Amino acid sequence: MGQRVFGLADWHRDGTLAEHVAMEARNLAPLPGDVDFTVGASLPISGLTAWQGLFQHGRLQAGQSVLAHGAAGAVGSMVTQLAREAGAYVIGTGRAADRQKTLDFGANEFVDLGSDPLEDIGAVDLVFDVIGGDIQKRSAALIRAGGTMVTVVGPVKARPAEGLAVDFVVESDRAQLSEIVQRVRDGRLRANIGKVSTLDDAVATFNATGRRAGKTVIRVLP
């Protein structure tokens, strides 16, 4: 009782936007006292998505190259940081306004999808897709033989000619959560928090049509 925890509920549940929530203990990990709850709340979906996409499904190895779409976003910034720590060369994409933020999170290069020819980056080992559509199709053509595309936007519409394509849904994993939060404590990983709202404003926050600059966090208690 009273232990600080963070985690990700099973997808068949109704979510965690409430003052009291029952969750399976296997989906939770201890939240160290030097990591505040706002940071802790921002980590599970974005951190686990990046971790599982890169290492479980993408089989990333040191020295490989990663094309990280949406690199200034909540998931993309985690992909960038974890891939760089693993020894990969990261090319981040986004809009022109995302350039500096993407580079600040550690990307080696930035591609403005609004003006830079994506094909000019050459072949890559892994594409982390959070966009789908035409960008996914163009990205698949860049994957070198034996490479992988991982996507979180549903069934893959475009597959690399000589590589793998994997679509996945993130799952909670206590060991991975512990690895992620330890990197935050060590300063190796930075949370990317956008808007922080109250429970009363939650519906309006999630229904907002504006582009989110990071992970949205709802504070249930003051």
UniProtKB/TrEMBL annotation:
PANTHER family: ALCOHOL DEHYDROGENASE RELATED (PTHR11695), RETICULON-4-INTERACTING PROTEIN 1, MITOCHONDRIAL (PTHR11695:SF294)
Name the UniProt record assigns to this protein: Enoyl reductase (ER) domain-containing protein
Organism: Agaricicola taiwanensis
InterPro entries reported for this sequence: ER (IPR020843), GroES-like_sf (IPR011032), NAD(P)-bd_dom_sf (IPR036291), YIM1/Zinc_Alcohol_DH_Fams (IPR050700)
Lineage: Bacteria, Pseudomonadati, Pseudomonadota, Alphaproteobacteria, Rhodobacterales
GO molecular function list: oxidoreductase activity
One Pfam family matching this protein: ADH_zinc_N_2
Domain Enoyl reductase (ER): start-end pairs: 2-218
